[in-house]
Structure formats: structure tokens, C-alpha cells
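MODEL INPUT / OUTPUT PAIR
PAIR INDEX: 1
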Amino acid sequence: MSEKLTASILIVLALGLSQQALSQQQTPGLVYTKFAASGPEIWRVDTDGSNSRRIGAGADATWSPDGAQLAFVKEVDGNVDVYTMDADGGNVLRLTSDAADEHSPTWSPDGSMIAFNSDRSGSDQIWRTNVESGNWGTIQST
């Protein structure tokens, strides 16, 4: 099993997401990463497959539980950090700024926290950040 897949599984377990919580998530469409010459881009498409459009630069996008925002990762100046943006691509906010690379962001069921994988402590661990305050800490060692 790949390290990213293992980390993603642990993030889901660490946040206590259940199948019921996932099925109740209000997503206004699907998001995916498209690899362009300029770098990875986040694209959105309606659930019926129509209206495909680019909404920003980045990768690993995931919807907030209320469908109003996306968490994603983006590389800036050689550093990959976690960001959020509105569903239309506006109001981009950088949540992490550590020299280590972060990946696999996942929302908590109530939308107050985002968990992600990082080796900022020297080994891969699951970290979480509060969306409102920006406070962060570890959840699980891998």
C-alpha cells in the first residue's frame, strides 16, 4: 500500500468519519486534479458531467462538509502547503507554512478542522489545523 494511501486512510480514521457522514456531505459537484504544463490545476464538474471548469491552481482538493469550500495543496516557491478556497475558486487562504511538504487534506465532519499528512517533525505524521484559528497539532504517528 502506498504511503499516501495509508496516510489518507489514517486521516479518515483519525477524524472518525463514518460512511453516514460522507453520504450526508453536501457537494455541489466533483473536483479533480488536471496536470497542465504550468502545473497541477483544480477543476470542478457538475455531478451530471456538465459544466467542467478550472477553479484554481493546486491538487488533492476535497469539499468541506457544507460544500462551501475546498481544502487543497499547492506548491509555492518549492514548498507544498494546505490551502482553502471558496467553491468558485475565490478567497484562497494558506493554512500551513512549514518547510515540510503537506498532502492529503481531509475535512472533519463539522468542517472546523482539516487533517493532513506531513513529515514536519522528521517522520510522517497526521496533523490537524483549526480552520478558524490556524492552531495546529499532531493527531497520529505513522
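PAIR INDEX: 2
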Amino acid sequence: MTHISTPVRQNTNSIISRVSANDIVIGPTNGVETFTHAKSVFRYISPAFFNDPTMDKPSKATENEPVTVYKIKRDTTFAEMFGSMGYLNDLAFTQGQIIEFCRSHSDKLRPDGEATLFLFETEGKCFIADIRVRMHDNSFMPEVYMDYADNRNRWNTYSRPLLVIPAQRT
């Protein structure tokens, strides 16, 4: 697993491009909320969150966090897409911040079942929250999946995942 202090820097312009004209603000969080307890926000929560005991740990409370949404421009890996923005620890959200984004800004998630990706850390390790919005019972509801930041799988431009990155930390 990738530790959050891992520096990985690429040429940002060749990998991602900004989607949102203006920054979006994630409201403050209390640091208590985790994915395993966010059933009112997510229709489906990956078993990976329940199988790893480190995933259900509270984090720090956070203030308002301006974020920017990007899309990938070429086939890439997690390390390349997030690494193109700077140090991973500078880009990591808390679980509560991602939950708050999905609760308050669900209109900014990909509405077509494709991924909106967030980097988060728990106990000094980086993970990816893969949020997908799908139709359930005549309404669109987000689902959350977890992946490891050091996963070497390639994301292709066909699926065009969105990346949500802290604006003030890049």
C-alpha cells in the first residue's frame, strides 16, 4: 500500500484537465463519519470497507475545503493521475469529507455509472474512494467502492473518471 508521503510528480497537463470552472466547497466535518456508517448517503458500500478494520476509524474534524474537479485525458494509473497533482498526502481527504461531498454536491458526481475518484487516507495509508451513481428504485443513488492507491490497473479515457482534488493543496 502507498504511504501518504510518497512523492510522485508527472506532467499534469498531459494527464488531466480541469472540468469545474469554479471550485466547489465541501462543508466542515466532525471527523466521526466513516463509509461504514454512511448508509443514508450510499445505496451500496463495498464490503472492503467492512473487511478492513482500519476503515472504520474516526479522523480529524475539518473546516470548509475548496475542491476542483478534473477528468483524465489519456490512459493512466492511480499513481499517475493523482501523482500529477503533487504529494499524495497533500491530496488526501477524510472519509467524512468525501461523504459530505456526495451528500451536498451529488450533482457533481458522474451520473452515468462511471467513476468519480477521491484519494483518502487512513492510518497513514492511501486509498481510493470510487463513487458511482446508478439508478435504484427510480432514483439515482451513489455507491462507494474502495481501491488501493498503488493499484497498477490502467484507467482508460473511454471511461473518463472524474478526480476530485483539494484546490488549496495543489
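PAIR 2 NOTE: The helical segments are 12-15, 47-51, 78-83, 88-91, 95-104.
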